[in-house]
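// run 5 | inverse folding | seed 20
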């Protein structure tokens, strides 16, 4: 049943989805097949992205797609601006500890583009597991200190040593002192 939901209707309809552009009945018949197709929008989007020149795709005829192409404004960003933005996006996701495949999936780009962006920006290494765990632990300690939980309770609940909690307390008191001086 799940396969049926995502199967295009044109595969089993027995209708010519590539009618002549001067055959209004053939075009209408092909568009009728698309009308209730479960993947109509994806089909139309794909045809527009591939700039399909022939046939009816997602209910759009050749003329419909040409009109959409002509209405689309030209790209306002330069290639170098897009590449720079991709590098910033990749760097931000690397800082979150994501790997190349996860970054590629999140940005919707091929893995090799992520690898190129990482090499170009010098961010080829991802943070170690220990660094990520330490950062997560520090966030939990800060949240518990903000909530007024005692150092002893923090140590017991998070299974951390006294020095880890004390280091966070020292950093927080230094930050507060700097903020008070600046104010």
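// decoded
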């Amino acid at each position: 049943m799940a396969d049926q939901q995502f199967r295009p209707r044109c595969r089993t309809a027995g209708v010519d989805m590539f009618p002549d552009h001067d055959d209004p009945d053939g075009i209408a018949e092909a568009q009728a097949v698309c009308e209730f197709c479960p993947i109509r929008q994806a089909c139309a989007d794909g045809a527009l992205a591939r700039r399909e020149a022939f046939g009816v795709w997602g209910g759009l005829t050749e003329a419909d797609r040409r009109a959409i192409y002509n209405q689309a404004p030209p790209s306002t960003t330069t290639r170098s601006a897009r590449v720079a933005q991709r590098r910033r996006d990749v760097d931000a996701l690397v800082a979150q500890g994501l790997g190349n495949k996860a970054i590629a999936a999140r940005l919707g780009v091929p893995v090799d583009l992520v690898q190129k962006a990482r090499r170009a920006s010098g961010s080829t290494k991802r943070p170690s597991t220990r660094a990520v765990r330490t950062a997560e632990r520090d966030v939990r300690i800060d949240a518990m200190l903000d909530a007024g939980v005692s150092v002893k309770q923090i140590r017991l609940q998070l299974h951390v040593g006294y020095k880890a909690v004390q280091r966070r307390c020292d950093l927080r008191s230094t930050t507060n002192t700097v903020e008070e001086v600046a104010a």
